[in-house]
Structures are given as C-alpha cells and as structure tokens.
Amino acid sequence: MRLFESAPLPFAAVGFALLATCCPAEPAKATLVQPVAPATPAPAPAPMPQPPAGPPAAGPPVARTVDVVDHQFGLTVADPYRWMEGIGNIEYTTWLAAQGGYAKGELAKLANRDELFKRLRELGLGLTSVYGVEIQAGRTIYSELPAGAQLAKLMTRDAQTPRVLLDPEKLGTGDNHASLNAYSLSPDGKYVGFVIAMGGGEVGQIHVMETATGKELADIEEPVWGEFAPSWLPDGKSFFFIQMVKPAEGGDPMQNMITRYHKLGDPVAKDVTVLGREPDATFKLLPQEFPNVWIDPGSPWAIAQVGGARSEQRIAVARVSELDLSGKAKTPWKIAVGSRSSRAWPGAANRFRSRCPGKVGPRASSPT
What we know:
By secondary structure, the protein is of the alpha+beta class. The protein is built from 4 helices and 18 strands. It has helices at residues 11-22, 90-108, 113-125, 345-353, and strands at 69-72, 75-78, 129-136, 139-145, 153-158, 161-166, 178-185, 191-198, 203-210, 216-225, 231-232, 238-243, 258-263, 272-275, 290-295, 301-308, 310-319, 334-337. The strands form 5 sheets. A 4-stranded antiparallel β-sheet has the order 3-4-5-6, with no helix packed on it. Strand 8 and strand 9 form a beta hairpin. The chain is globular. The termini are far apart.
C-alpha cells in the first residue's frame, strides 16, 4: 500500500503542520482600547421671540357660586346658585342682561345673520295656526295665530263665519302686552272662561265672556297660574278654579294652591274652598301639589285630580250629591289612584272609570 493512500494531503499543508509543531508562535500581545471621550452636544438653538400676550379671550359672564347645602330626606343637595332666587334680585337681573348682551354680540358676528334671521321669521310667521279647539252644544271656540302675528286670538264661529271673541293685542298698553294663556267652554256653550296674563307673565286672571255676544261679565278671579283654565260644572253657571295663595315673606308662590268654587254673578267674597289646606281636610295635599276638581256632564261623580311638576298624580272621587260647597271642604273623597300607579293620566282614568258609573273624562287642563 502506498503512503498517504487513505488520506492524501497536499505537501504544503504537511509543511505548515511541521512548522507549527517545532516552532510555536509567540503569544499575541493584548491590544489596549483607549476610551473615547463623549462628544460635546451642540448648543440648543435660541428660542424664537414671541409676541407679547394679549388680553384673555372674552367669554360669557360667569355666574358666581355660593357654598349653600340643603339637607332634605336624608340627602345632601348642593345649591351653588341660590343667590339667583328672589323677586327683584338686582344682581341676577344684571347678570341676565350681561348674558343677553354677550349672546347678541356673538350672533352679530355670524355671516349673513340678518338675512338668515329674516328668512326664519318669514317661515315661522308666514302661516296661520289654529289649535285648542273645543266644542260644546254646537258652539266651537279655538285659538288662531294669524300669519305675521305674535299673539293668538280667541275665536268662535257663527255657522261658517269666524268671529274674534278676544284679541289680546287690544288689552295691552305699550310694552306691557297681554296674552291668552288658557280657556275652557261651558257645557252649554254659552260662556267661555279664559286666563289673561300681562307682560308675558304666567300668573293671571280668570275672565268670563258670553260666546254669543262677546260681552265680558264682571266675574274675575285672581291670582291663578296661567295653565289652569276654569273647570265648569254641568249647570254651565258655575266653575271650579285653582287659586294661588299669597305666600309668607320669602315663600314660594307656587305652593299651597287650593281649589275654589265660584257661581256666576256672585261676588268673589262668596267663593268657597273645595280642596284646601286645613289640618283636618278629608283629602290632604302636599305643599307642592296642584289640586283640581271637575265634573263631567252626565256623571254622578266628581273627580279630584292632584299633581305637580312630575308625571305621577293622585286621583280621588266623590259623589256629586256629597260635594261640600259650604266652605268647610268636608267632601268625603275616596282615593281611586295613588301617585305610584298613576304615571299616565289616560291609564289612571281607565282604572277608576269602571268603578264610577257614568261618563268620566277630563274637563280642564291637567297639571303635568
């Protein structure tokens, strides 16, 4: 066998191997790495000069707050704007005027604002509106707001001919305008009781007018909340109405309202209380509740409907023959529907309709 036959190697590789065996290489010298000094950062550019700050942007007047807390029914209720309350509050009216001035200035900045305002008025006042229709014994009354007008008129019809019963624009003087807030037609259609308020207010007077002649009677009841029209009795010669009670100094004029009875032609001094605030009242009322009583023609039942600024109402019934019109307010009312179950008036009416023989239905504006 020949030498290197099994693993032939090049002669140069063999020579290198022999040299490495007999002449070892010198150990490698360590290389020293010099530390590199950190680069010096470039200087930050000088800030650009800024223009001097102008005055703060104007905004709407800010309402101040006060540290007032009420404790009612186990709850703590903060009332930071209590200072806005009170009639004749000069600070509050000054703040409102400032708010209005700011809003007027902002609206004036709108492009084409005058043209837009003019067009909106054309669309809003360009049509005649008819609403609040009531029909009794062949007599129809309704409210009509003519095109371009600001105040609605009380209207009726003689056959097919419309006739103005009341034009509030003729009752106002200067800037103190009158407005028609509510009305109701007597069951025989001979009279209409209506509420007139002055100066855009919501507290007004009840007046009565003959529908056939437009003649106003001497009967005037006040003060009443504008939403509450008189509730006529079936005889067409008397009505119930909700009267506001003069509050104590600093009191709420919206509380402690009562229901009274008035007969046409009688002086108001002869009016009697039907639902009152006596401690021994047969139907006790909460201060914030608005009491109303009505009788539907043909029904032997009188309905007491008590509500307020909420959806719930309480409803009581009594026979018409048992109504106490002596002024003692001792009618034996029976609760038909409590506040928890009368969230919707139509549903509540249906609940006691089956209990009370005769026709039952609302005759006057209901508080909501």
